[in-house]
Amino acid sequence: MSRPLGRSIRARGTGSIVTAGWAGMLAPGRRGAVGVLCGGVLLFAVDTYVTASLLPSAVAEIGGERFYSWVVTVYLLPAVVTSALTGRALAAWSARRAYLLALLAFGVGTAIDAVAPSMAVLLIGRAVQGTGGGLLAGLAYALIRTALPRELWTRGSAAISAMWGVGLLVGPVLGGVFAESGLWRGAFATMVVVTGVVAVAVPAGLRRAGARPPSTRTPFPLFSVLLVGGAAAVLSVSGLAVSGAGVSTRGVVVAAGGIVVALALLVGLVLHERRPGAVRVLPLATFTRGGPLAAVYVTAAVLIGVSAVEGFVPLFGQRLGGLSPVWAGFLGVALACGWVVGEMTSASVGRGRLAVGVGPLLGVVGFAVLTLTQRPDGVVWWAVGLVLAGLGVGVAWPHLAAGAMAGGTAEDGTDDDGEGDRASAAITMVQMLAVALGAAFAGVAVALGDDDPAVSATLLYGGMGVVALLGAVTALRAREAA
Description:
Blueprint: H1 31-62, H2 70-84, H3 86-92, H4 95-115, H5 119-147, H6 153-180, H7 184-205, H8 222-241, H9 249-273, H10 293-306, H11 313-319, H12 325-332, H13 334-349, H14 352-372, H15 379-405, H16 419-448, H17 453-478
């Protein structure tokens, strides 16, 4: 008999949802944990956008232009793997030690970047950064479960995810300031200092999260990790095949084939983990017949995957809309702004089932608007479509994350053999794989446009609209967990 996932907290006899206000996040004993967890994710997010802004200046000084695209790839691969191993880390170490080790790896990698004399050393630093960053992101969701009461899980998820929106705003500014002053290494040095500040706050901030019941040590999920890492590697290579200008037909074929191979590896992961006695990285409830957790992860993956279009928005803004680089950049953050607004509003209002059902539909409408308005005079409509697509992600995301976190929690609130840690950590693993898959899919769609920006944009937004429609279907089951 299947064990139900976490239910919404309702007042007895009324059927109305009992919500804890945002002030509850800042109550004594909680504000430190919230600050630490948000700080770790913000480091990860800011670093992503800072590096993108600094890279041209770094390449001009240390060389290695032909390895330009690998800077993202070598960061993503270890991040996906370590996010998948968050549950394992929490079984081996206390929450505070695991978080400090993640910060240490991130800080060491960032320091290597700051002093890198060549692209080879910079890539090593990025790999070390990714190792720590993936664990930071995975621990954030896992530790919400022990640092906050269940009625605050939705708001905690919204606050953590909103750090990506903050990072999108802060990262390019920080990187741009240091790059224009000719001191690109200073941005990485600043990140090292901030990492140290967050580390100092960990002992006190995660004091309560550190008090965890002992868990049974399980074998290392080697085969699952190999499948996850293989899928991430194939997707990264697929993205490289269609990155840059002058993409060949061969590159498009390689990228499309890579997407198929990656999906096959992920199907293999599911088939392997659903076997009795398998050593898993996903919680057992994912494979419960009729349960909503699998649909939660698929819907979350769809929402994150379609957001990959934001990387191409400034390109279309300049080439098709005739915008200046500055205004094209502002257009590029429209989706992120909708995402953050949607999250904060949805987490405040509650009504998780409605939010999960409506979110993907907003995305479908947003991409329909974008698909039908790809002409030079349609820039205003582009902004509307992007905001709607971002709202779709934001409205559903905090409730999906809270539902996933409840996936390993028994009705008495206890964690069954680390299942809660697996369920929470899988949010980040799914998120990162979805980013890689969405980026590869977007690259193929844009390359098929054959240097015609209107055709490329139409194919990109139309294709993502179809994917968002898939999310609207899976959301019908996923909302049962909200």
